[in-house]
Amino acid sequence: MAALNKRYVDGPFGQVHVTEAGPEQEGDHVPLVCFHQSPISGAQFAVFQQHMATDRQVLCPDTPGFGSSDGPTPVPTIEDYADALATALGRLGFGDGHQVDVLGFHTGTQICVELAASRPDLVRRVVLSSLALFTAQELERNRAGFGEPRPLFTDPDYVSSYFDAQVTNGLRGIAPERRLELFVERIRSGTRSWYGPEAVFAYDTAARLPDVKQPVLLYVLRDTLSENTRRAASLLERSVMKERLDIYGPSGWDSHAEEIAADVCAFLDASDPV
Known about the structure:
Elements: E1 5-11, E2 14-21, E3 32-35, H1 46-52, E4 58-61, H2 78-91, E5 100-106, H3 107-118, E6 123-131, H4 136-146, H5 158-168, H6 176-187, H7 195-202, H8 205-208, E7 216-222, H9 226-231, E8 239-248, H10 249-255, H11 257-269
Parallel strand pairs: 3-4, 3-5, 5-6, 6-7, 7-8
Antiparallel strand pairs: 1-2, 2-4
Helix pairs in contact: 1-11, 2-3, 5-6
């Protein structure tokens, strides 16, 4: 499979860390940029990235403040994240007619939406999986559970309990070593780990979706946001939906990476996807 290469580019909050992979010989396929869930990093897509990169360049940046990317001090918005990542992509030579396709999972879906709506010169096609499109009741419930600073210094059992949930008793579809790797990516965001979820809850996804004019694949995996993803169809001008409820979303990027890559490629490479 394709090798993963790491690099840094400058952004408005400092350096943005990007993992790249691609075929030995550059082809005609549009590059794909993947935006991860919070609080993890681009490492979430490492296995999927290698499968996708057999015939195209695939970039997985760490959202500012997560992974190895520098982050903002005040709580950012989704617009801030999208602007920072667009700046990083611009420094990598994208934009001004050199477009990318984008894929997002959980928090990454909203970054995709904002980039597609605000930068049609940059974004050609969009893949949204586990879209954070909430009803008022869902928003209130999720904000209460995930939109607050974590008790890193006040709850002596917090880190050990988190480890048990993510590693010892974590996703069974992936190896323990991989669960440990992703746990480290989760915990390294430290006291700002809640910034991503808070940005999600403050973003009006429903109001922004109609501004996305590009073809969109709503890729419905089995997880807590399956129905939320389906809802987006009525708000998008050009969308197609593919259901893969046989794949559990959080572990699928590892356990079913080759299958997901085939589904995503079919959409991105279709002459008339919608």
